[in-house]
Structures are given as C-alpha cells and as structure tokens.
Specification:
heterodimer, A: Nuclear Transport Factor 2, Chain: A, Archaeosine Trna-guanine Transglycosylase, Chain: A, domain 4, B: mainly alpha, two-stranded antiparallel sheet, 6 strands, flat
Chain lengths: 148, 358
Amino acid sequence: GSYCFRLHKDRVYYVSERILKVATSIPGDKLVALGTCFGKFTKTAKFRLHVTALDYLAPYAKYKVWVKPGAEQSFLYGNHVLKSGLGRITENTAQYQGVVVYSMADVPLGFGVAAKSTQDCRKVDPMAIVVFHQADVGEYVRHEETLT
Amino acid sequence: MAALCVEELLARAEQRAAEPHPSVAVEKELELEFDLGNLLALDRNVPPSMPRAAGAQRESRLRSLARDNTQLLVAQLWGLPAERAEGATGPLVAQLPEPSYRLPREKPLPRPRPPTRWEQFARLKGIRRRKRTSLVWDEAAKQWRRRWGYERAGGDPARDWLIEVPAGADPNEDQFAKRLREKREKVARNEFNRLRNIARGALPGRGLHPTGHQSRAELGRATQVARVSTASLGRFQPRLPKEPPAPPPRGGKKRHFEPLLGDLAAERSRQLELLRGLGSKKPPLDLTRAVNKQLREEDAQAAADKGKKRGQRGKRGRQRPGGGKGKKGGARRQQQRRPAGRKRKGPSGNRRLDGAGV
C-alpha cells in the first residue's frame, strides 16, 4: 500500500496510511510507536538514524562500505571500523558521507559515516578509523528495551 | 568577451616581465630610528609635499614612501640573530630585542582605593604589623601548639566545662550563654565592617555590590551571564521561579504544519519531488542565477554612477578570477552550495534528513 512519514514525540516513523488512520484514534500521549521508527531528532535538532530503518534504506544505498569478516564482530558490538577491517568502499565517497555498512557476503550490517573520503582511505595507516559507527544490527539485542 | 580578457592578461604579464624589479636600496637624508622589539620604524625626514589637489599622485607618493620605509625596516629585521624553529626544516625566526618605545595604556590608571576601617584606625594610633610566630609554647600541655584553631594553646574556650563567675557579676547569669552571645555579636560586627568596607570600595574586588543595592539592570545582566555559563551555553537551563518565560526563538511566529491526514497523494508527490532534487547532482533552484544576475546589475549600476572611473572598475571586475574570495564571490558560492530542499516546507513536521544521506 501507500506509506508515509510521521513525526511523533521527536521520532520519525514510516507508517502505512491504513495504520496511520487507525492510529489517529489513540490519544497522543498514550501512543508509544507506530509503523517503523526510522530515527529521531535529538535535543539539539540533529537527526539520528536508527537501525530499524536498515531494511528499508539498504537497497537504496548509494555509498556502501564492505567490512572484512574479522572486523564484522567488532562493528556489531558498536565499535568504529578501522582501516585494517575495511574490505571495499564505493568510489567517490566524500568525507562525512552517510554510508551503509555491509559484510563481505553483502548482508547489510548497519549505518555509518565515512570518516575519510575514498582517496584518503587508501593513504591512511591501518589503525585509523575509516567509518564512524552510527547504528548496527547488534543493537536489536543490546538496546532491546529502548528500540521502538 | 573571454578572449579579450585572456589577451589583456597576456599583454599585462609580458609588460610585467619586461619591467626590471624595483631596487632594494633606499636613499634617505636622515637615518630612520628603529625599535625592533615593537617592529617600529620612525622616519624623521621631511615628508614629500603632497598638495591636496593631485589625488592619484598623492596616492602613489604615499605608497612609495610606505614601501621605502618598510624596505628599511625589513632590512633591519634581516640583520637580527635568527634561528630555525621546529628543527632544520622549520621557518626562520628572528629574535627580537626588548621593546624600547613605551606604548600608551589601553585603560586608565586604577584610582587608589580608600583604606579600610582598621587601616584608618591603625594609622591613627600608629599601630604597625608585627610578624607573629605560628606556634606557641603551651605550658600546660608542655608542647608547641598552634596559636589558634584545632588543638590551640590554652585550650578551646568554647569547649570549657567550667567557667568561673567573675567577681562583681550577677551569680544567676548564665556565663555560657553570655560567652556564646558575645561571640555572635563579635562575628556580626566583623561581618558588618567587612560589608561596609566593600561598600566604600576599599577591597580589591570593588565596584561590585555583594548584597542589596543592585539595580534591576545589573541583576538582569548577571542572571543572563550566569545562565549562559553552562556547558550547553544555557540551552537546557530551567527558568528561575519569578523569571519571565524565555522569548520565543523565532520571533513569536509559530511553525505551520500540514494536517495529519491531509491530502496524502499531494504529500507523496511533494516528497518524491524532494527526493528527485536531492538525487540530482546539479542544484535544482534557479535562485542562484537570479541572485547572480541581481548582483551583476548592482555592479553595473555602481560602475555607471562612478562615471569617469568606469574604465578602471571594468578592468578590475574582469581581472577578478572565478574562484575569487571577494565578498560577492563568496556570496555567490554560498548560494550555490545551499542544499536543495531548504526552502520547501515539508509535510507535518517532516524535516530534511540531515547528515546521513544514504
């Protein structure tokens, strides 16, 4: 069907129109969540993407980063990706560009921000951070209580 | 148009190459006085006559004077002992001598503070400060004890279990209460005198009122400064009980949101437009060109107003390269860089996805 975005208490939800119409009957302060949460606006009005958006956004990713099997575990625990764990990266990635992190088997693992552009990634030493961690599928287990 | 510019540039470059470099030697009647600590050069020569009438000549004469004097100063600086900072490849740094020229004060001299009450009294009586020893011999304890404070010599008077009624005092009077009262009175008197000294401006931190006697404006300013002196610069600071509520950040105008279940088809089409604009590489707005056009018109107008200086201005305008750092160049660049969907009002609270543009 048709889907749309709705803002509810600083969180952005991706919800089908049918469910949206039904959700209007619940009072606002009692409504916890609706549809899928894509992210939230922080106190200083920055938008933070959550891992729950991964399934929807991964197919449309323009800039991807593939991570080696050894560093995969580290990323899933919430650490940044170092140059030593970097497998591949899309050409022409700008610095601080939002990226989707994949494993070598093309399984989407989460979201990140490129700490270095593709050119710089080649030159930098193996212990430097190349992708800042933003969200990963391990959060489904780690942040079970707080994910909406 | 572009070809003309290039020809002109090449001609000018050839001209410049043909000219010899200006010489480094400078002739002066009187030697300049140098204060290298302040990077100062004093020229006591008679300045060249510059009648007010000749405008451009004056400019060129002033320039040549400045150039000559700067040349002499720089020559002096090269004569100073120098060393390489940060190792062998670092920049060459000269060691300046102590400055000899006294620069004037930025702020006026502080006015002398009035003496405190004790200082006045001491001056009157001729009392002078004696240096006291920190430890005193306590006969009873046969020890060196401190003069006051914890375990003082002579015992703590406040913790006496026995106070003798002095001769001539009322036997029914409570001596303990009396001692306590007197101590409190002494403390209160001391505090009073301290505040009085502050009010008279005798203390180093004068000019500020400790309690009371503060104007409303002063208090307001102090509150504002205190509010902003937090790590978040006062963003999450709750208001004081009787403080008026914060002024709205956008000048009282409320944000207008679309209704929750408004025209959903229109919302979809608007968002797809937005997506298309974000996806395309070139900026979708013609606003940039409109602004540039406006700026060009303004330039032309300004040139037309100046009249006889038009030729020069035209040349300078064309000389300025594309990526110039001029004020107008900067404005143009900013317009181009502005992200696509900035001016659009999204549907009910949908804001532009920031940063993680996947």
